[in-house]
Specification:
With 137 residues, the chain is α+β, with helices and mostly antiparallel strands. It has one domain. The chain is 16% helix and 38% strand. The longest helix has 9 residues, at 7-15. The mean pLDDT is 92.
């Protein structure tokens, strides 16, 4: 399946994630259409002792889909372990390698950022996040 071929394909991809990734114990992910060519993805994935909170703004205006913006948080219990977002930080040369994709990590999680080489606007990011969390077990 090529999830970004159409909005319907992306919906099928999202709603079959637990079947494709047995480590996903629960999903509350929902794709909310905003017209014929736009959507929002919101919800959580529970993978082991971790919870991935996902938010994506999607566009299919040019045919193939793309993520316009995103935010992904990884929690263990009540502790936020790290998060990813696509907010640009053009003044930070350390993030230039895969601008604007970056990961916030401890110890100063709000200000400590590293490049996120596995994320993209043109392919689904959820499988990357699931694999990363699986690696934490």
């Amino acid at each position: 399946m090529k999830p970004f071929q159409s909005l319907a394909d992306y919906e099928r991809f999202v709603y079959t994630l637990p079947a494709l990734h047995p480590s996903v114990q629960r999903s509350t992910l929902t794709v909310v259409r905003r017209g014929a060519k736009a959507a929002l993805l919101t919800g959580d994935l529970v993978v082991g002792d971790y919870r991935i909170v996902a938010r994506e703004k999607l566009s299919f205006a040019d045919g193939a889909g793309q993520i316009v913006s995103y935010g992904y948080e990884v929690w263990r219990g009540s502790a936020k372990m790290f998060w990813y977002d696509s907010q640009a930080h053009p003044d930070d040369p350390a993030l230039a390698r895969n601008h604007p994709h970056h990961k916030h990590i401890p110890p100063d999680i709000k200000h400590n950022r590293i490049p996120a080489l596995g994320l993209s606007f043109t392919a689904p990011n959820l499988p990357f996040l699931i694999r990363e969390v699986e690696g934490l077990f």
